[in-house]
Amino acid sequence: MVDIDFAKAKIFVGNYDFWYESSQLALRLMKDQNKKQEEKIKGLQNFIARFSANASKSKQATARKKMLDKIDVFYIQPSSRSYSLPKPRQY
């Protein structure tokens, strides 16, 4: 099976159902990872906002600001595929 999306072709071994399940799983995992990253970003921003002025915690706030700069959140592009319903199987 060949999947053409974002002007790139990817070869999958298996049938349409396997490809669909694996692509949906990959998308779900990426969304979950982005959600975790966004929660981590919010926590770090909250810590920095609370403790950046505190003299005893300013080093920790600076370290967390550096961690915040290193976190990447992936932009998930909508698919360029045009879906069509599979043809019913003839037995």
β-sheet strand percentage: 5-15%
Helix content: 40-55%
Please state the structural category.
Answer: mainly alpha
**In sequence order, what are the helices and strands, one letter per element?**
EEHH
Task: Evaluate the radius of gyration.
Answer: 21 Å
Q: Looking at the chains present, what oligomeric state does this protein adopt?
A: single chain
- CA distance, first residue to last residue: 21 Å
Number of strands: 2
Mean pLDDT: 79
What is the topology, as strand order, of the major beta sheet?
1-2
Q: How many domains make up the coordinates? A: 1
Q: Spans with pLDDT under 50 lasting ≥5 residues?
A: none
**Principal-axis shape:** rod-shaped
Individual helix count: 2
The biggest sheet amounts to: 2 strands, antiparallel
Please explain how this structure is put together:
This protein has one domain. With 91 residues, it is mainly α. The protein has helices spanning 16-51, 58-70; strands at residues 2-5, 8-11. The protein has a two-stranded antiparallel sheet with strand order 1-2. The chain contains two helices and two strands, in the order ββαα.
Features:
2 strands, 9% strand, mainly alpha, rod-shaped, two-stranded antiparallel ribbon, 91 residues, 2 helices
